[in-house]
Every structure is written in C-alpha cells, then in structure tokens.
Amino acid sequence: MSSYENYTHKSRNYDKTREPVGTEISVGCFAHAPVPLDRTVILDAGCGTGNYSQAMLDYVGRIEAVDMNPGMLEVAAQKLAEAKDEGRISFHSARIDELPFEDEYFDGVMINQVLHHLPDEAAKDFPAHRRVFAEFARVLKSGGVLVVNTCSQEQLRHGYWHYSLIPEAADALRARYVPLDELAGILSDSGFAYRGRFAPVDAPVQGESYFDPRGPLSKEWRDGDSVWSLVSEDRLDRTISRIQDLDERGELEAFMARNDALRPHVGQAMVLFASRE
Ligand SMILES: C[S@@+](CC[C@H](N)C(=O)[O-])C[C@H]1O[C@@H](n2cnc3c(N)ncnc32)[C@H](O)[C@@H]1O
Fold first, then answer.
1. Which string of b and e fits 79-100 if b means at least 16 CB within 10 Å?
2. Residue of the CA atom closest to atom 4 of ligand 1
3. In whole angstroms, what is the distance from residue 250 CA to residue 253 CA?
4. Ligand 1 binding residues, C-beta < 6 A
5. Which residue puts its alpha carbon closest to atom 20 of ligand 1?
6. 212 and 235 in contact (C-beta within 8 Å)?
7. Phi, psi dihedral angles at 75 (to 5 degrees)
C-alpha cells in the first residue's frame, strides 16, 4: 500500500488525468527479452488502474498484474475484463516485495511510478527498495528485462508547473524519490545489469489536462498527482486563493508558462532499463 496516498479514495478519479507515459520506451526494452516480444510474460508491479498493462497488452504475450489496493485493482479488472476473459491478463492482490510467483517465472518486469510510495529510509540505504528489487531478481529469468518508470530529481524540480505553488509538498515528494545514480547502484547490487535511462520529454503524465491552469482548483485534477496528498489544508486554501487572484488579474496563463518553461527539455518521467544477470 502507498505509505502516504489513499488509493481507495483516488481510484475512481485516477484515470481522468493519467496517461501511460513512456510505454513506447518500455516496449523497446522488453524487445530485448530472451523470447520474442509477443510471447513474453510480463509482471506489472503496482499496476494501479492498469493503464500501463492496457498499453502493453498490444505488444506482449501475457501480463500478471499485482497491486495491494483493492480499489485500484477493481478499476483495472473492469477496464481490462475482455483481456482477462481471454487469459491475457490476471490480477493479484499482493505486495510487490512478496510476490505470489515461483522463481524465474517472468521474461520481464515493469514498475511504473510506484517506488516513491514505498516507506523507506535513505539513512539505512533504502531497505524497502532493496527488498523489492531482490524479489524482482528472484522472479525474473536470466536475461529477463526490468523496466523502472520513475522521476529524476531534476524532473521533480522543473517538470511540473504547479509544484511551484506547493513548495513544501514538492520538497517532501522529491525526498521520497531515490536519486537515479543511487537507484542504478541498488539495481547492480540486486543482480541486474544496468543498461541505461530514457526520458519521454514530450508527454505530460497528466495528458492534456496538465495544461489547465485552473486544474489545481478541482479535486478530480488534484487526484491525478499524489503530491497533493502532501499539501496541508492551510497551504491548499492559500494555493486556491493565489490561483484565483492570478486569474482575476489575467496573469494565470503567464504564471503557468513561466513555471513550465523547462519541462519540454527535462520531461516528467524517466525509464530505467536493466536486465537480470
Ligand atoms: C502512482 S500509482 C501507479 C499505478 C500504475 N503503475 C500507473 O502508473 O498508472 C501507485 C500504485 O502502487 C501501488 N503500491 C504501492 N506500494 C505497493 C506495494 N508495496 N505493493 C503493491 N502495490 C503497491 C498502489 O496501491 C498504487 O496503485
């Protein structure tokens, strides 16, 4: 379960503002698996409402989708009912560090925007991340592919225009993301060969709705980014007043453009590619 977000409440709104950004990169990574792409068996670890599974089903053989949150799993199972009936995807309620699969079961594992939800401690060298990657190493075949979709520190600083409105929450969120060089080190320690990182710079994680300068005024919009769960009530009230004020003065669009200037260069998500040694 996420250590700070209530996904049971968020599951109904999640898909309104989320896109499976980076799928084309993941497809390219899984094409390096030891079996042909359309025969690969892939784990979607922390599948949420199944957006990435849905996108990957066009390419891979079969998907086992795992999440701890019943609300998210229910939305995913409804959305992908046809593929489920065809035996192309199965859903499992489980923790990603205690997977219900035997050793060397998968050709590929993907984990999309989940790692920052782990309760972890940098001072102890990220034991929760290490447990998750050890479990992925156990269930992957030799040569199997691991795809980690996450965010870099730079993307969290410059890739989301609205984070400038909520600096304390943005700092708290950034502290939850392991810096990518350290993440690559943890992958190596866990039995993976690290093969590179790739950023889909053009695609906002919230799709077109990201460009709505009045978006943060609506709960539905805020539910698409867990950073808002780290915002205090007082800060939320002040943020809403600030947006309304900027809007009344005709400055809201310019504010958004100014704080979005670097996003087209750094992007919002990073895909790490590794393979099981
Ligand atoms: C931000 S959502 C991402 C969902 C999906 N991967 C996507 O990108 O659309 C994070 C998901 O990870 C799940 N999750 C977090 N920690 C987990 C854990 N230890 N075991 C299983 N699922 C977990 C949450 O329940 C939630 O559905």
1. bbeebbeeeebebeebbbbebe
2. 48
3. 8
4. 1-2, 7, 18, 46-48, 51-52, 67-69, 72, 95-96, 112-114, 117
5. 95
6. no
7. -60, -45
List, for residues 94-133, the tens digit of each pLDDT value: 999 999 999 999 999 999 999 999 999 998 999 999 999 9
Would the pTM of this model clear 0.70, i.e. be above it? Answer: yes
Q: Can you list the positions of beta strands (E) in 133-228?
A: 140-150, 192-198
Listed residue (71, 23, 24) closest to 44, CA to CA: 23
Distance 246 CA to ligand 1 centre (A): 35
- Ligand 1 nearest-atom number relative to CA 51: 9
Residue closest via CA to ligand 1's atom 25 equals 69
Our mutation pick for probing the ligand 1 site, out of 68, 173, 229, counting the most ligand atoms within 8 A of Cβ, is 68
Tokens of 185: 């080190």
**Amino acid sitting at position 104:** E
Q: What is the CATH number of domain 7-276?
A: 3.40.50.150
C-alpha 96/C-alpha 53 separation (Å) is 16
- In whole angstroms, what is the distance from residue 151 CA to residue 268 CA? 6
